[in-house]
Design a protein that fits this description.
This is Putative hydroxymethylpyrimidine transport system substrate-binding protein. The protein is of the alpha/beta class. Helices cover 41% and strands 16% of the residues. The chain contains 14 helices and ten strands.
C-alpha cells in the first residue's frame, strides 16, 4: 500500500506544473521561434548571443533556433514566406521587398545608427561628395548605392555623371587598398574601415545624412505579416529577451563579446581585434535613437520616399506597411 501511495504521488507530480518551477523547465509551455541572421555571428549580434547564454529566451518561454542564410537576400524572402519567424535585415532591403509585394514588416531595431558610409583614402584628396567627380566609386551591385551617391553629389553641387561607378562585388577592402577605386560605398565603419586602418591605410569617410540622404537604421528584425498575426506574443517575448541581453552586455562588455567568439562559425573566421573594436562602437550605435529595439517611424517614411523618388522602389510606402508596433 505504501508503494502504491508513493507511485501515485510521483505520477501526480510528473503531471503537475509546479508554480515554483522556472518557465524554462515547464517544457510544455515553451514556444518555438526561429531566427535567421543576416550573416555569420559577429559583433552586431552580441545581444542575441548574450540572451541565449543567460537563458533570457527560455525565461520568456521561447525555444529559439538560429539559422544562417545561404544567400544575402534569403532572410527577408524566407521571413515573408513564413519559413523563418524572424530575420535580421536592413531597412532598404525591407522597403524593396515590401514594394515588390513580399509581406513583411520591421518589428524592432538591432543597430540604430547607419554603419554604411562613403570611404576613401585621405591621400586621394577627397573630402566631400563634390570631390567624387572624375573618381571611381566602388559599390556592391545595388541601384540604391548608385542612387545615394547621385543624391549626395547633387546635394554638394556636383554632377553624378562625372563619377564612374565600379561594381566590385564584395571585394570592398581590396578594391580601395589596391586603388582599383578611389572611394567605396557599402563599406561599414565598424568593419571595413577598421580593417583598412589596421592594415595601415589612412582612411576617412563622410556620412550619408550630411549630404541630403534621410537617416535610417542599419540592422533590424523583420517578420512576415502572417507570423506577426499568428505569433505576436512570441515576437514581443523575443524583443523583451533581447533587451535583457543588451542590458547584460552593457554591464559586462568584455564577457559579452566573448559569446560571439564562442559561437564563431568555421566558415567565417573572425578577427578578434576588429570584433572587439566593433563592439565598442556598437554599444552606442544600438541605442543612438532611443531604447534598444526602438523604431523611429518618421525615418522609415522619409527613407522610403527617398527611394521611391530615386526609382529604387516602385512606390512610396506608409508606416503601416513597413512597421509593426509590438507595444500594442
Amino acid at each position: 500500500m505504501k508503494k502504491l501511495v508513493v507511485s501515485v504521488l510521483s505520477l501526480l507530480m510528473a503531471l503537475t506544473v509546479l508554480p515554483w518551477m522556472p518557465q524554462s523547465v515547464q517544457a510544455e509551455e515553451m514556444m518555438d521561434l526561429s531566427l535567421m541572421l543576416d550573416w555569420y555571428p559577429n559583433a552586431n549580434h552580441v545581444p542575441i548571443y548574450v540572451a541565449i547564454k543567460e537563458g533570457y529566451f527560455e525565461e520568456e518561454g521561447l525555444n529559439l533556433t538560429i539559422n544562417m542564410p545561404a544567400e544575402a537576400d534569403d532572410p527577408i524572402k524566407l521571413a515573408g514566406a513564413g519559413q523563418t519567424d524572424i530575420a535580421v535585415s536592413y531597412p532598404a532591403v525591407l522597403m524593396q521587398a515590401v514594394a515588390e509585394g513580399i509581406p513583411a514588416k520591421a518589428i524592432g531595431s538591432l543597430v540604430q545608427q547607419r554603419l554604411d558610409a562613403v570611404m576613401y583614402k585621405k591621400e586621394s584628396g577627397i573630402t566631400t561628395p563634390k570631390d567624387l567627380e572624375g573618381k571611381k566609386v566602388g559599390y556592391s551591385a545595388t541601384t540604391i548605392s548608385e542612387n545615394i551617391i547621385e543624391a549626395m553629389m547633387e546635394h554638394d553641387g556636383a554632377s553624378y555623371d562625372k563619377a564612374e561607378m565600379v561594381n566590385v562585388g564584395w571585394d570592398l577592402i581590396p578594391a580601395l587598398a589596391t586603388d582599383k577605386v578611389d572611394a567605396l560605398i557599402g563599406a561599414y565603419t565598424n568593419h571595413e574601415l577598421l580593417m583598412l586602418q589596421k592594415e595601415g591605410y589612412d582612411v576617412d569617410y563622410f556620412d550619408f545624412t550630411e549630404y541630403g540622404v534621410p537617416d535610417s537604421d542599419e540592422l533590424i528584425f523583420v517578420a512576415g505579416n502572417d507570423t506577426i498575426e499568428a505569433k505576436k506574443p512570441e515576437l514581443q517575448a523575443f524583443m523583451r529577451a533581447l533587451k535583457k541581453g543588451f542590458d547584460k552586455a552593457l554591464a559586462d562588455p568584455e564577457a559579452a563579446i566573448e559569446t560571439i567568439f564562442e559561437n564563431e562559425d568555421n566558415a567565417y573566421v573572425l578577427d578578434k581585434e576588429i570584433e572587439i573594436q566593433s563592439w565598442d562602437l556598437l554599444q552606442d550605435y544600438m541605442v543612438s535613437k532611443g531604447d534598444f529595439g526602438n523604431l523611429v517611424v518618421d525615418d522609415y517614411v522619409a527613407f522610403a520616399k527617398f527611394l521611391a523618388d530615386k526609382g529604387s522602389i516602385a512606390k512610396e510606402l506608409t508606416a503601416e506597411e513597413l512597421i509593426e508596433d509590438l507595444s500594442k
